[in-house]
UniProtKB/TrEMBL annotation:
InterPro entries: CheY-like_superfamily (IPR011006), OmpR/PhoB-type_DNA-bd (IPR001867), Sig_transdc_resp-reg_C-effctor (IPR016032), Sig_transdc_resp-reg_receiver (IPR001789), WalR-like (IPR039420), WH-like_DNA-bd_sf (IPR036388). The keyword DNA-binding applies. It is found in: Cytoplasm. Residues 116-222 form the OmpR/PhoB-type domain. One of its GO terms (biological process) is positive regulation of DNA-templated transcription. Residues 3-116 form the Response regulatory domain. Keywords: Cytoplasm, DNA-binding, Phosphoprotein, Transcription, Transcription regulation, Two-component regulatory system. This is DNA-binding response regulator. One of its GO terms (cellular component) is protein-DNA complex. Residues 116-222 bind DNA. Its main location: cytoplasm. SMART domains: REC, Trans_reg_C.
């Protein structure tokens, strides 16, 4: 079931969207301001975010920046701001689509389906990844050679593999895997990276695929 986080400070919109999405078999969480949205996203890990820009505590563009600091979750903006500059700012910040209020619910649902399809297609392209001597099937959670990973090891590895060549910050990994309360627990990452290298690298002491960027984060090199 696809999980959608709805962020809006208008109760009637939250209620209407929740009723329509639940009726179509989506799992829904609600947030009435930007701070709650960032907390809920970190704890609940939605598959898509519907985000209003006019929030009482944070501007919606700031929420987009906050999310993009650690996640690639699709974001569809819902806003009464119809100006082109507002749309450009939201899309440049990392939003995937922009729907102007008042909106037609069927059009919005079509946008949600389209963004979800694109995301799944991108994920399918990464279904099988080669890491050294091992073929990693991200869909079925299997690794050639009989290698077995714990759920936490899988979570960390999947984040790295879905960002080939890109530096993934310690903050992003800690937030996605353990939550925002664990941002200082960088020793967790060191321990798990040691275990992953031991299982997947030819020479764990001299890794060539799972790389540490000191003081910053980690990088997967194909």
């Amino acid at each position: 079931m696809t999980r959608i986080l709805i962020v809006d400070d208008e109760p009637q919109i939250l209620r209407a969207l929740r009723i329509n999405l639940v009726a179509r078999q989506y799992e829904v969480a609600l947030a009435a301001d930007g701070s709650a949205a960032l907390r809920e996203a970190a704890q609940w890990h939605p598959d898509l975010v519907l985000l209003d820009l006019g929030l009482p505590d944070l501007d919606g563009v700031d929420v987009i920046h906050g999310l993009r600091g650690w996640t690639t979750v699709p974001i569809v903006v819902l806003s009464g701001r119809a100006g082109n500059q507002d749309k450009i700012e939201a899309l440049d910040a990392g939003a995937d689509d922009y729907v102007t209020k008042p909106f037609n619910i069927e059009e919005l649902l079509a946008r949600v389906r389209a963004v979800t399809r694109r995301t799944r297609a991108q994920e399918a392209e990464l279904a099988a990844v080669q890491l050294g001597d091992h073929t990693i099937d991200l869909t079925n959670k299997t690794i050639s050679g009989g290698v077995r990973l714990t759920p936490t090891e899988w979570h960390i590895l999947e984040i790295l593999l879905r960002n080939p060549g890109r530096l993934v910050s310690q903050r992003q990994l800690l937030t996605e895997v353990w939550g925002t309360k664990y941002l200082k627990e960088t020793h967790y990452l060191r321990q798990y990276m040691v275990q992953l290298r031991r299982k997947l690298e030819r020479d764990p002491a001299h890794p060539v695929h799972l790389i540490t960027e000191l003081g910053m984060g980690y990088r997967y090199l194909p």
